[in-house]
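Support request, please re-run this one:
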Amino acid sequence: MRLQLALNVKNLDRAVEFYSKMFGAEVNKRKPGYANFAIEEPPLKLVLFEVPEAEERLNHLGVEVFEDEQVGTAIERLRAAEMDTLIEDETTCCYAKANKVWVHEPDGMRWEWYKVLADSETFGAEPQFETDACCADSEPEAKEGACCA
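Re-run finished. Output below.
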């Protein structure tokens, strides 16, 4: 497993150049507005989103695992701790199909545990928790839809 750090950057080209030099690593995946590095030492998945107007530079944190059972173990642990989770099976996000579980830490930072299943040519959608803006004013029945599943 390796820790994931997802950053919002103002200029993707500049960021890719900087992090390539900083870690002595080549970019692993590069798409419009998106890049990631799979760094071996230290074990890190560095993800860059080109979002010049972002108020925060930190997008989210995660743990990439290499066995699907590890996602299941994380789900069991989070549920046993009665944490609010969002489970996504075979979802497309960040130009990859993955199984994942999301949680928010007490101050609102998003964390994900995920296993990449395959590459994708499409970016996909951002996860939507019941507490996200699209669901804040929804009726309980509406929260069962794709936005808040």
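The first strand starts at residue 2 and ends at 9. The radius of gyration is 16 Å.
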